[in-house]
Amino acid sequence: MRILVVEDELDLQEAIAEGLRMEGYAVDTCSDGEDAYELAFVEKYDLIILDLNLPKMDGLHVLEKIREENKEVKILVLSARSTVNDKVKGLDMGANDYLTKPFDFAELEARIRNLMRRKFVQESSLLTCGKISMDLTKRTAFVEGRELLLTKKELALLECFLLHQEKVVSQEELMAHVWDQNADSFSGVIRVHIASLRKKLKALLTTDPIRTKIGEGYFITNNKGDA
Predict the structure, then answer these.
(1) Which CATH number fits domain 2-119: 3.90.1150.10, 3.90.800.10, 3.90.226.10, 3.40.50.2300?
(2) 9 by DSSP, 3-state: which?
(3) Crossing angle of helices 152-163/171-178, nearest 10°?
(4) Which of 88, 97, 119, 222 is in the most buried spot, having the most CB atoms within 10 Å?
(5) For residue 27, which phi and psi values (nearest 5 degrees)?
(6) CB atoms within 10 A of CB 119
(7) pLDDT for 29-45, tens place per residue?
(8) Where in the chain is the domain with CATH 1.10.10.10?
(9) What separation, in Å, do the N-terminal and C-terminal C-alpha atoms of the chain show?
């Protein structure tokens, strides 16, 4: 999943971004409200972590403007403003969650996982497609109980496919949700990672559950008869 971290304390920004990247998320960063507002409309994010005390444009104003145009993206407010009134105002303006500084990174991760499950109306943390299963909480995948040893990007790709079963996901969508803004969309990186994921799945399944729809993208299926 792709996350935008908006935080003007650069050390904290980098710590959050690095921690999330280690968990397999694609993370972009910025440090002021104007950049946050622009990125929110130029890029496709699954989640925005938004500080409130920002230069150039206050975080609440950013939140308000994003919600005027985008009701779907999940927004987690991260702020030193800890009064009940501040929290109520943030939530009333459209934030999906509110975490007060200082915070424990483990709690931030838990809240992100919870928001991601809500985004896709996923009542369980377990995604399945035939013999394939993925635990969103533990970030592990299995085929008939045997663990799939996947890289972070392969795991993120599999998650995206499982969340959109039988639906074609374009290369542009995969690039938008699995890679960050530094990725080169013309480098062939998606094809390389999908080829590796397919090889690992086929080694355990004997068939390839990921199909290519020429000119459109890829999809995962439990139908062995699909071409």
Answers:
(1) 3.40.50.2300
(2) coil
(3) 120
(4) 97
(5) -130, 130
(6) 16
(7) 999 999 999 999 888 89
(8) 126-220
(9) 28
Please, are residues 168 and 223 in contact by the beta-carbon 8 Å criterion? no
Nearest CA-CA partner of 161 in 222, 207, 227? 222
Q: Where in the chain do CATH 3.40.50.2300 domains reside? A: 2-119
The per-residue pLDDT for range 73-104, each reduced to its tens digit, is 899 998 887 677 877 888 888 889 999 888 99
Q: Which single residue is written with the structure tokens 């999906």?
A: 96
Contact assessment for residue 141 and residue 150, using Cβ atoms and an 8 Å cutoff: yes
**Residue 74: its H or E element:** strand 74-79
Q: What is the dihedral of CA 72, 73, 79, 84, to 10 degrees?
A: 10
Domain over 126-220 is classified CATH 1.10.10.10:
yes
Round to whole Å and give the CA distance between 115 and 136.
12
Q: Which of 32, 25, 29 is nearest to 14 (CA)?
A: 29
- Count Cβ atoms below 10 Å from residue 103 Cβ, excluding itself: 12
Does an H or E element contain 179, and which? none
